Amino acid sequence: MAADLRLPAPRKRSTDLPKEQGKHLVAPGDVITTDSGFMRGHGTYMDDEKLVASVAGVVERVNKLICVRPLKTRFNGEVGDVVVGRITEVQQKRWKVETNSRLDSVLLLSSVNLPGGELRRRSSEDELAMREYLQEGDLISAEVQSVFADGALSLHTRSLKYGKLGQGVLVQVSPSLIKRRKTHFHNLTCGASIILGNNGYVWIYPTPTEQNEEAGGFVTNTEPVPLSDREVISRLRNCILALSMHKMLLYDTSILYSYESAFHHQIKDILKPEIMEEIIEETRRRILEQEG
Amino acid sequence: MAGIELLSDQGYRVDGRKPNELRKIQARMGVFSQADGSAYIEQGNTKALAVVYGPHEIRGSRSKSQHDRAIINCQYSMATFSTGERKRRPHGDRKSSEMTLHLKQTFEAAILTQLYPRSQIDIYVQILQADGGNYSACVNAATLAVVDAGIPLRDYVCACSAGFVEDTPLVDLSHLEESAGGTQLSLAVLPKAEHLALIEMDSRLHQDHLESMMDAATQACKDLYAVLDRVVRDHLQEVTTSIGE
C-alpha cells in the first residue's frame, strides 16, 4: 500500500491577493460609532450611547441601520431559503430537522405533500404513519416557510423538487460560503446534480431520470448508481471541499470551473494541498476572467 | 521561602523575564473545520486547544433549557501527557470540575446569552502541555474560539495569573513559580471596560499588597488583549481577502 507523507510546512498566507482595504473590519468590543442617530442591528449592542460590535466581522450599513456580519456563524434562516437537513425526531404532527441552525427546525405534517395529491385531508392515520414517510436520520431538502420569534425555522416541502433525499453525498461547509442565487438546484453539465442548501449543506446526487408524481417525494430510488456517475460525484465532492478550504464562494459557475480544472487529476489527488492550490488558482483566474 | 530564588537581586525572574513581562504568545484561530469555532494558543510552554460548538438545540435532558437565554456548557480537560507525571484521567477529577465551573462563570459574564433563547453553547478546552497558568491559557484560547464561532461577546475575555515575591508582583507565572508555594491570583477581565469576569486567589496575602497585585494582573491582561486582538484582526483580514466578493 502506498502512503502519502508530508512534513509540517508553514501555512501559506494568501498575501498575493490584493488586500481588502475598503471594508470596515471590527472585533468584539470595538466602538463602531458614538453618534446616536444610528439603529442597532445584528452583531452590535449599545453601551451607554455608544454602538459597540459584539462579533468579529465586516460592518454593513443600510441607511441608518448598522450590522456586523461575522465571517462564520450558524445558519440564520430567511423565508424562501433552500435548506438540506436531517430528521432528528418524530413528534406529534411534526418532524424536528437539524439544519445547522441555532435551534432545530420543524417540518409540520401539514406542510408536506403526502402521496395522493394536493388536496388530501390529513387524517389521524397519517399522523400514525409519519415514521413511514420520514424517520430519524433521513435527509430532506426543504424551503423555509416562516421564522418563529425565537429564531427557529418552520420548513415546508410543498413542491416536487423538495422531499426526501435518496442516494448521494452530503458535504457540510460554512453557510457564509454559499452564494445566494435565484436557484439552488443545479443539473450540472458534468453529469450530476447538486443542491446548494443556504444552510451550508450541499447535496450531490446523480441526475434523476424522471420524476414520479404520485410518491410525493417520499420514495427514493435504490437502484445501484453506475461507476461513472459515482466518479463524477466524488470528484465534485472533493472540488467543493477544496473551494471551502480556500474560503471561496460556492455557486454553479465556481463549482463547474473547479471541476474542469481538476479534470486531469485523479480524484483522490484533489485533496492534496499542492494540487488543491493549483486547482483553486486556476478556478480563481477563470472566474476573474469571466467577470471581466 | 526556601529553595530557589524567584527574583534575583537584579530584578529578573528564573526564566529571565522581568516581573511584569508575559511569556511568548502564539495563537491561531480556525484550526478545525468540523467545529463552529476553534483556536490554539501557546503561552510559553503552556499549550491549550479550545473548541466551540453552537449555539445549537439542547441535547440530552431538555429540563436544562432556559427560555430567555442560552446555557453554556464547558469542559476542561488535561491531556494525559500534559504534565510531568502521566495523568490517570483527563477530566472529571475535582480540580478539573472546579476549573470547568470557573470557565463557565467566566463566559457567562462575557457572552450575550440572551440572544439565543432555548439553545446551548458548548466550550471544550484541553491543555496539551501544562507549564503554569492553565486557567488563563484556557480562557484566552476559548475567547479566540468563541470569536471564531461568530458568537456575540461583550468584549474579549483575557485572563492572567499573578504572584507576589519579595514585595514585587510577578505576572503570568510559570509552573516553577506556581509550585514554589506563594500566593497566586487568577484574574479574567473584559479589558476595554475593565470589568472583572473572575477573580480567584489561593493562600493569604496582606491586604496592602492586594491592590498592587491586581493592578499588575490587570495590566498584564491588557497586554494580552493587544496580542489576541492582533491575532483576530490578522485572521479577519486573511479570510475576508480570500472570500473577496
**Structural class computed from helices and strand pairing of chain A:** alpha+beta
CATH topology-level name of the domain at 25-70 in chain A = OB fold (Dihydrolipoamide Acetyltransferase, E2P)
**DSSP helix fraction of chain A:** 10-25%
Distance between the termini of chain B: 62 Å
CATH level-two architecture of chain B: 2-Layer Sandwich
Question: Counting H and I runs of at least 4 residues, what is the number of helices of chain A?
Answer: 5
In helices, the fraction of residues of chain B equals 25-40%
The largest sheet of chain A is: 5 strands, mixed, barrel
What is the helix/strand order of chain A? EEEEEEEEEEHHEEEEEEEHHH
**Class from helix and strand fractions of chain B:** alpha+beta
Q: CATH topology of chain B, which one?
A: Ribosomal Protein S5, domain 2
Number of helices of chain B: 4
Distance between the termini of chain A: 46 Å
Strand neighbour order, sheet with most strands of chain A: 8-9-10-12-11
Quaternary structure classification: heterodimer
Give the overall shape of chain B: globular
CATH superfamily of chain B: GHMP Kinase, N-terminal domain
Which spans of chain A have pLDDT < 50 for at least 5 consecutive residues? none
Organism (chain B): Polypterus senegalus
InterPro entries (chain B): ExoRNase_PH_dom1 (IPR001247), ExoRNase_PH_dom2 (IPR015847), ExoRNase_PH_dom2_sf (IPR036345), PNPase/RNase_PH_dom_sf (IPR027408), Ribosomal_Su5_D2-typ_SF (IPR020568), RNase_PH (IPR050080)
Subcellular location (chain B): Cytoplasm; Nucleus, Nucleolus; Nucleus, Nucleoplasm
Protein name (chain B): Exosome complex component RRP41
